[in-house]
Structures are given as C-alpha cells and as structure tokens.
Amino acid sequence: MHERTWPFEWLSPARQKVLLAAASGDHRGLVVLGRAGHGKTSLARQWLRDHPSGHMFAGTAAAQAVPAGAFIALLGGAAGSITDQLRTAGAVLSTGERTRIAVDDAHLLDPASASFLHHVVVEHLADVLVTVRAGHQVPDAVRALWKDELLPRVDLLPLSRAETAQLCTVALGAALEPSSVERIHAAARGNPLFLRHLIETGLDTGELQRAGALWRLERLPDLDQQLDDFIAAELSTLSPAALEAAALVAIGEPLRVDDLVAASQVPAIEEAETAGVIELVPRAGEVVVRLAHPLHGKHLHAHLGRMRARRLRGLLMEAALSGPQTSMDPTRVALLSLSSDHPAPLDFLQKAARHAMSASDLDSGEQIARAAVDRGGGFPSGTVLAHALSWQGRGAAAEELLSSLQPTTGEEFLAWSSLRITNLFWALDDPPRARAALDAARAAPPTKASGAAIDAVEASMALYQGDLARAHRMADQVLEIDALPPPAVVRAATTLAIASALSGSSGAVASLVERVRAVERRFDTGFLADHAGLAAALASVLAGPLPPAATVQPPSGRPETAPRSQLQAVQRLCEALQAGAAGDPRAAEWFSQAAAGLHSCDVTGCYQLAQIGRAEALALAGRSDAAQQVLEQLTERRAASGLLAPMYEMARAAVKVAAGQASSAIAGARRAASLAIDSRQTAVACVALHRALRYGDSSVVRSLVAIADQCEGPLPQVMAIHARALCRHDPELLESASRRFADLGFRLLALDAAIHAAEEFDRQARTDRQFALRSRIDDLDEALGRPCTVAALRHRRPLPLTEREREVARLVGRRLSSREIADLLGVSVRTIEGHVYHCCMKLNLNGKRALERARIDAHQ
Known about the structure:
Layout: H1 13-24, E1 29-34, H2 40-48, E2 55-58, H3 72-75, H4 82-94, E3 99-104, H5 111-122, E4 126-133, H6 140-147, E5 153-155, H7 161-172, H8 178-188, H9 192-205, E6 208-211, E7 214-217, H10 225-235, H11 240-252, E8 255-256, H12 257-263, H13 266-274, E9 278-283, E10 286-291, H14 294-302, H15 306-322, H16 330-338, H17 346-358, H18 362-374, H19 378-391, H20 395-404, H21 410-427, H22 431-443, H23 448-464, H24 468-479, H25 486-503, H26 509-522, H27 532-543, H28 565-582, H29 587-598, H30 606-620, H31 624-633, H32 636-639, H33 645-658, H34 662-678, H35 682-695, H36 701-708, H37 714-728, H38 731-744, H39 747-763, H40 767-783, H41 790-796, H42 803-813, H43 818-825, H44 829-843, H45 848-854
Parallel strand pairs: 1-4, 1-5, 2-3, 3-4
Antiparallel strand pairs: 6-7, 8-10, 9-10
Helix pairs in contact: 1-2, 5-6, 8-9, 11-13, 11-14, 11-15, 12-15, 15-16, 16-17, 16-18, 17-18, 17-19, 18-19, 19-20, 19-21, 20-21, 21-22, 21-23, 23-24, 23-25, 24-25, 25-26, 25-27, 26-27, 27-28, 28-29, 28-30, 29-30, 30-31, 30-33, 31-33, 33-34, 33-35, 34-35, 35-36, 35-37, 36-37, 37-38, 38-39, 39-40, ...
C-alpha cells in the first residue's frame, strides 16, 4: 500500500480543539466521542506525542472480565483487593511531575477500571484524554465525566464533502475531479479510515489515476483485507439473526419496513439498527431501511455464499410480492427472482421488463425479458428483448429476433413495425432496408392513427438525416390527428421540438416539451420521452433561456430508485450543452460523463453530440490535441453528415482556434453556416456566422444580421447587435452587447464582446473607458478558466502583430516548418517567411528560433 500522510486531525474544529488542548496544556482533559474509524485513536496518540512519560490504555472486550484489567500495567504485580490495587495505581500516577494519560475505547472498560478513571479525573491525578465510540453503551462512571461536566466533550462528526476533497488533495498532492469526490465521499460517508483505504486501494489497483491536473476515480475499488477485517470486527457483535437482517438490507436496499419485517424478525432488525448497521430513512411519504454505510454492503455481499444469497433473495421477493405495495421497483424484484430459489410469475416478469426499459435500464431489461422469453412469454416479451438489444447497439441480434416474431393484432403489428424500422435505421445503419420496412408497414395500416404512428417514425428519420423541412412538416401533420398512440405523440412532438429549436422557431419548443410530459404522466412511453429535454436545451443555447417549466427535468412518474443510466446521461448532456454555451469550465467533464453513459446504448446521435460538445469544450480550454483526438474517434459518416454536420464543423473550427489557425477556423465556421442553411438549421447558422465574426471575419456581418432576423429568441438579436457594433466600430454598443450576453447567461460571448469594446475604446484613445472595462474583462476571463478564444488570447498577450502575423507566430511556436505553415494556410513559403521577418522585427527577436521559443499565445 502507498505510504503518504493522512492528517485527519486538522480537518474540523472538533479535531483542532483536541490538538490545541494537547499542545497548550490548558485542559485537564477531554472526552472524544465518535464512530469507529473517525480518528479517535489517532487523536489519542497526538495527545501523548510530546509526553514520553505518558501512558496509553485501552478498553477491550477481553479485558472486561478482569477487574481493573485496563490499568493492569500500573499495578506492577501489586497484590490485595481491587481497592488496594487501584490505590497503588493512583499512587503511581501521583508521584513525580504531572503526567498525561489516554484511555481509548472507554466504553469497553470494566466497572473497576471505569471507577478508577473517574477517580483520576476527580482527584486531578493526570491530564486525561478519553475516547468513546458513539452509539455504544457506556459505563456510568465514564458517562459522568461529561454529564457532570468534569471534562469537556468533543464530538467527531463525519467529514463533510469539502473536508473529504481537502484531505484527498493533501494526501494525493493534487485534487480529485468533482465527480470522483462525489463518488468517494458517498462511499466513505465521512469516515476517515474508510476514505483512506479507498484511496490507497484505488492507487494500488489502478482504479484511481492521474488525468492531467486532476485525479480520477474510475470506479470504487473492492475492499482491501485490512478494511474488510475492520468491518467484520464491527459486525461481529451482531447476533446471527441481526446479521441476516443486515444482509437482507444489503441485497435489497432501500427496503420498505414492512417488506423487511416480512422477511426477517423485528428483534433482529431492532438490534441491527441499535448497532448502527442499518438506518431508517424517510422518503417520499414512507420510511425505508438502508445500510448505514455503503461499504458494509460490499463486505456483506462479498461474504454471502451462493446458496444463502439465493435463499435471501427469495425471501425478499416473496415479501415484496405479498404486500399491497413495495418500495422496491418491479425491476429489482424481478432481478432478485432470477437469482433466487423462488421464480416470479411470468406476467410479473413481463411487467418488470417493460418497467426496466422505461427507466432506461437496458441491461436489466434484457435480462428480465430474456428470462420471460425462456418462460414462454411469446410476442410481448420478445419485442421488449428486441428493444433492449437494439438500443444497446446490437442491431443484428434484434433483427434476427424480430424476424422470428409474428404479430397477430393491429396493435402488435404497429409496435413490431416501428421497432423493426428504427432498429434497421439506427442500430444497423441501413436506411434502404428501413425505408422498405416503413413502406411495407404503411401499405397495410389497420387505422389512420396507426398509419400516423409510422409517419412519426419517418419524421424522426428525416430529422436525423438533416432534412428539417420534411421532419417538421410530417411531425406537424401527425400531431393534428386525434387518438394517436402515446408513443407516436411523444416521437412526433420530440421531433418537432428539436426541429423547431434548430430552425430558429424556439417559441414552439416549450409547449411541445410540455405535451410530451403530459403524455408521459399518463402513459408508459418507454424512454422515447427522455430526449424531449434535449430540445429544450438546444433551444436555450441557440435562442436564449427558456421558461423554467421547459428546462430538462427527470420524469415524475418513475421511481426514484430506478436505474436510469441513459436518462441520466441525456440529462447530463443537456446540462453540458448549456454549460458549454456559457463557457463554464466544467462543460468538458460533463460532456465526457454524458458520452460515457451514452456510448454503449445510444443509437440516436446523442453520443455523437456529446463528443462534439466535448471536443469544443476541450478546445476552449486550449487542449487542441485532446480535442482533435475526440473528433477523430467519432464515426464521421454519422457526425459529419446529416443533422450534426454543422455542429461537427463548428467543433473542428474551435479546434483550429486552439491550434492557432484562425484563418482555418474562419473557413470552418463559414462552412458550418453553409451546411446549416442548406438543412434549414437557421439558428445553428446564426451561431456559426457569429463564431466566424468572433474569429475575425467582418465580412459575415450582413449575412449574420439577416439570419438573426429569421430566428426567435433574444440571443440571435444580441448577436446581430454585436455584429453591427463591430461593423460601426461603436464601443458603447459593443459594451452594451457584452452586458446583454451576460444577462442571458452567455458569459463567454460577453467576454469576447467586452474585449472588442475595450479595443475600440483604445483605438479611439479613450483610455479611461478602456481601463474601466479591463477589470470586468479580467474577472470574466478568470471565472471562465482563461478560455481559448481569438479575442481572449489577444487580450492576454497584447502584441503589435496583425492577426495573420500572430497566426504565423503561433504555428512557428508549434515547431512547424515554413513549408508546413504555407500548406496549412494556403499561401507561398515566401509569404510565410515575410510574416516571420515582420514578427521578429516588431518583437525585437533574433530570428525564427527565437520566435519559436517565444511561444506566442501558448497555453499554460
């Protein structure tokens, strides 16, 4: 195990109080209460550290049977009664200079030892630090130490999240990334000992690794032997019945109290709660039972035999199914059934499989549906299994299964056709076969409503291919039909909402998102509705903030405990889009989290969108190589064509900025705008043209203003104001645009506009206004993590260079040859050498090597 310093004691006022008392000698003693692993013994050692003549004693379960057993070392073999022996021990303490003692785990002292400790404190025979484990029975003589105010009492509380992060930073020499802090703090629950072992084990196993400037914990490591033994000792005081109750909770938490009572015994449950192993927690109008510490669950799971685990799962499943309601959702109950000695009924498995799919828990949905198919579940179970396979990207397996199913009713035909079309189109990436399947389904629809449902599928396909006009038209027509199947309403409304956001018609998005949620509140539409929030997020970053009701939020009808990996990833994507548009430095991490959650189960383009956003955020942070690597990992056939093509080009342009290639970035932004206009993504075109403007292309002003006039929402209008102000060299209007960007939450755009305003004030020799803006610019720049924009780079390193000279200087700093730079910029080598000469003259540098070492606009 790694050796490092773990200074638990300085992290809280309580621990600091103990150290201060130890150092100053002002206190005659202290009583320290805390849970196991909270650092009581460490503080006791600190208490004695500078007192070599001090004594360390400890209460133990074994010594409780021996009168005065804890202080046997002071007796020196003295004979006689207990009273005589303790008198001898007191005499030892009272001879010579005043001494100091620490008594660890005083709750385990036998009565005689507890009485002697009380006597030492009352008679002031020594300065005493007493540690007591919270939640345990304490001898009356020990309790009297703080109850009668003989010694001050200090309570060691669990580490807060901030203290956890601070401790890890000190021990590791660098900070943990925020998501890793959350993960490890939730696992350790503020216990310093558990925290230390998790970190050390993570380092030993490689699950904790350095990622740039931060540490990243990929997943929680298994318990090491020392921590496993520590937890085993904690649980060893439980009776077998109480230990079984704890194991039941570990398997099924959170459990409704009645479910646990039905599977266990009330006295055993009470014993486990009194020992602090389980706890009762209010949730959603009821009380549920969970383990008091997550790592206890790891220990209990690791030591459950297979047969015992099967029996316990069967007990929980029977308890869950026998009651009128259960806190365990059907997915969990069904999974318990699959690995227990009591199989669940087929109809329950079918219900649970659908529930898992609606909760975006694709792995569980596949397991349960496959079990239902094996039990003779037929068509209903087969379609759920095919759905799970398709949405995990296993399209060939889904197509094989669908081909074997025979729908017998109109409703089954509609569900089967929709699933097969979407599987062929997205999972198998086979548009011709998907079109053939769609035509076959449309040729024989049983009702007008079911035909419209097929049209809704076609509308979503058109959207994905970048044909917004057709997607908008078809989805709009579908939504005009009465008595539509709920999935068709959700699919059409979501398609129309996304198309409206991209085309600049943001005013319609909020009502469409609400229509999706209204359907979802009444019907189980699976995770089709998960993408409605994406439309709201896109509208907010392309048009400006939407009303709060339209922002992304988790569906209200789903259990809080249901695994929703894909839904959570889509929600994180929505948050990342908004953070990226605002310039928030956390955006790259959030996009990365979203991509990780969508990589194995997304076939609708959200994964590509997350990676595009991640590349942009990395480029904004100046990490051009990492950003380029992300773009290269994308499937270009999907990302560089169709719906996402303009955004893909904008990401490539952002990477060019980070690489110091402003002219290439301008060309990329203009190319993105052209693609967006061709596919009717008017709002995206507006953003792309505004990027070209920010990169230094003033020729796009007229086009930008014209496009902005076609878009709804406040953001395009402020972009147009920004463009007009730059064209007119109007610093007041530029400053106004900057503040309006900031009011809308787009601080990155506010930074660039403020820099443009300051530069115009400087050109007009209005230095007072320029200096007044500089403080605001610097504050924005620092808050945004010193982003890599053309304006911000220029502001941070003001040099007497033209934009082209600066661009050439940046590329020289990247150690490119004159020929490579000329090929990259599309000019002659002689032109490049001329720019290098002018750079050296203006900067008083002695040749190209000196210019290379100067690293113009290099990132820290």
